[in-house]
Amino acid sequence: MTPAPIAVALDAPDLETAARWASLVTPHVSTVKVGLELYLRYGPDVIASVRGASGVQVFLDLKLHDIPNTVAGATKAVARLKPAFLTVHAGGGAAMIRAAVESAPQTRIAAVTVLTSLSEADLAAIGLQGPPQDAVRRLAALAVGAGAQALVCSPMEVAAVRAEVGEGITLITPGVRPTGAASQDQARVATPERALADGADLLVIGRPITGSADPGASAAAIAAALRRTSLSRP
User: Fold this and answer.
1) Cys staple from 57: which of 31, 71, 113, 134, with CB 3.0 to 4.6 Å?
2) Region 60-74: what's the mean pLDDT?
3) Which of residues 25 and 199 earns the better pLDDT score?
4) Rounded to an integer, what distance in angstroms lies between the CA atom of residue 128 and that of residue 8?
């Protein structure tokens, strides 16, 4: 059975827990995500630990954002770990994104548009006026023009981004919450089924899976629901 297009966010307190979660979910999902906190605590060792024997895709979510030369060097440093995806902030500009793309030809550079924790009021406070969707679309177009092969946006904007950039760009959506799950610190959320229907390719889901009593069973249940939704479409 094909694993579901889910990246499980392994926001674990320690390496052993992250590796255990990864082993439980990898029969059901295509990808595991290593974030900044876990990577800073354990370094490159964490990638081998969560990849394990399964060879599951690793999404390295470092959200690099610096001058182009620094981002190029940082990207080269982690490219040897062979992550499937590496994130940079689209707000770093075209030259920075291009530097990352050129420094890791075997890794898909995913440009983060607008963080899912930010509301319209938050964006206004930092000088981005108007609906989040407008800022997301502008940043998406800029990033793809600079060579980004993937984009990170909330499920609320994924349909607009797909219309903006067309097919061939991988759209990754955090802020995905199964029906009944708490939104927690995410401001712009949707269900997995809705996100896929709107054009997402990879769904980032963390606490609804890893915070459950049985992460493997939770991942399997969400994967099964997505398959049912896919089969029910005309």
Assistant:
1) 31
2) 98
3) 25
4) 30
Beta-bridge mates of residue 170: 150
Counting residues of the chain whose pLDDT is more than 90, the rounded percentage is 74
Q: Assess whether 63 carries a catalytic annotation.
A: yes
Q: Evaluate whether 13 touches 209 at the Cβ level (below 8 Å).
A: no
Distances (CA, A) of 183 to 87, 95, 96, 100, 179: 23, 34, 32, 32, 10
Residue with tokens 């990577």: 39
CA distance 7 to 28: 10
> Two tokens at 124?
């206004």
Q: What per-residue confidence (pLDDT) applies to 234?
A: 42
Within 8 A by CB and 6+ apart from 33, the residues are: 7, 8, 9, 10, 58, 59, 60, 61, 204, 206
Query: Which residue among the candidates 33, 63, 76, 82 is catalytic per the annotation?
Result: 63
Q: In this predicted structure, what is the pLDDT of residue 151? A: 98
Q: From CA 201, how far away is CA 196, in angstroms rounded?
A: 7
Q: What are phi and psi for residue 120, nearest 5 degrees? A: -60, -40
